[in-house]
Amino acid sequence: MSAPEVVVFLRPGCHLCHDALEDLEALREQEPFTVRSVDIERDDRLHARYLERIPVIALAGEELCDFAVDGERVLQALRDLRERVGAGAARRRPTVAPPRERTAEPLLRASPVPVERVSRIAAPPMPTAEPTLAPTPAPATVGSVPGAAGNADPAAPRLGAGQAERLSRYLQVLTQARKMGRATMSSQELSAHTHVNSTQIRRDLSGFGRFGKRGVGYDVEELVARIRGILHTNQRVGIVLLGAGHLGRAIAGSDVFADHGFEVVAVLDNDPAKIGTPIGELEIGDVRHLAEVVREGEVVVGVIASPAKAAQGLADELVEAGVQIIFNYSGALLRTPPNVAVHTSSPAVDLLHALYYYLS
C-alpha cells in the first residue's frame, strides 16, 4: 500500500501546530506516512470546529488527538490501518496465485517508503493546503470595536467568543499584577486568578507567539501589550457615562476603564443640581447634549448607570446618536436594534454563580 496520509488541522503562526508537525516528522522514522496540513482560517466551518482544539491530528477520517501529538496513539492507528488494509488485500487475493506472483513479498513485509521520498513538512512559515471544504469569506474579527479607527487588521487571527472572553480575563489579572509591581507571572498563577486551566491558558496564547520562559513565567508588561493588540484595545476608545449618582460616581472615579486604555470623555445627567459640578477631572454635563458629545468625542461605548426606570430612554438616545455598544449597569432589560450590542453587568449574577459552586 502507499504511505497513509495524516491530516493536521492547524492555523498559520500557531507554535503548537509547528511543534506538532515536528513531532510527526520524528514519528515517520518509525512508520512511513505523509502529512497534509489544512489551514482552518480558510473555511469558517473548519474554524468553528477546530479553533479551540488545534492542532488536531486525523487519520483515515478519525480524529486521533488535539492540542499535541500523542505519538503512541498515532503509531498504533497507523499499524491498525496497515493491518486492515493487509487483511482486505488478503481476502481479495486469488486462491492460486499466478506463477509470476508466487515469489512476491507479502504486503505487510513490503519495503517501507523511504523517508526521503515522502514530501517534507515545511518549516515556518507554516504550510498550507486547500481544505476539503470550499473556503468562504472570512467574517469580521471578533473583538473589533465598531467605529474605532485603525483597528481593522485583515491579517489578525480571528478569535472564538470563548477565547476572546478568556483573553480579556487574562488581561484584567495581568493589568492588576502590573499595578502591584509584578514583573512576571506564571500560567499557574494566571489560572488561580482566572479559574482557567493553565493548559488552556498556554493554548490560548500559543497562537500569537512564544510567551514566557520555563521556570520564570510570562513577562507581564510584554503580555499586557500583546493581548491589548490582539483584542484591538491598544487604541483610543471613547466612552460616555450616563448617570452621576452613587454608581456613576463610583465608576467615573475608578480605574476600571482607564487601566485598559479606555477614556471616559463625558459624564452626563439630567439633574440640574449635578450639572456643572466636578466629577474627577471632568465636569458633569447635560444629557440633552448627548448626540453632540457622541459626535465630537468619537464615542464608541455608552455606559448606563442610571435608575432602571430611565435606562430604556437613555438607551434609545444612545442608539439614535450612533453608539453601537452599551454597557448596562441599571438592571433594566433593554430593547435595542440587532446591530447594537448590550452587555448587562450585575454583581448579583456573579455572586449567584459563585455561590452555586460553593454550596453545591
UniProtKB/TrEMBL annotation:
Keyword Isomerase: no
Keywords: Cytoplasm, DNA-binding, NAD, Repressor, Transcription, Transcription regulation
Keyword NAD on entry: yes
Compartment annotation: Cytoplasm
Residues spanning the membrane: none
Binding site for NAD(+): 243-248
Signal peptide: none
Superkingdom of origin: Bacteria
DNA-binding region ranges: 169-208
CoA-binding domain location: 232-333
Family: Belongs to the transcriptional regulatory Rex family.
Purpose of the protein: Modulates transcription in response to changes in cellular NADH/NAD(+) redox state.
Subunit and partners: Homodimer.
Protein name: Redox-sensing transcriptional repressor Rex
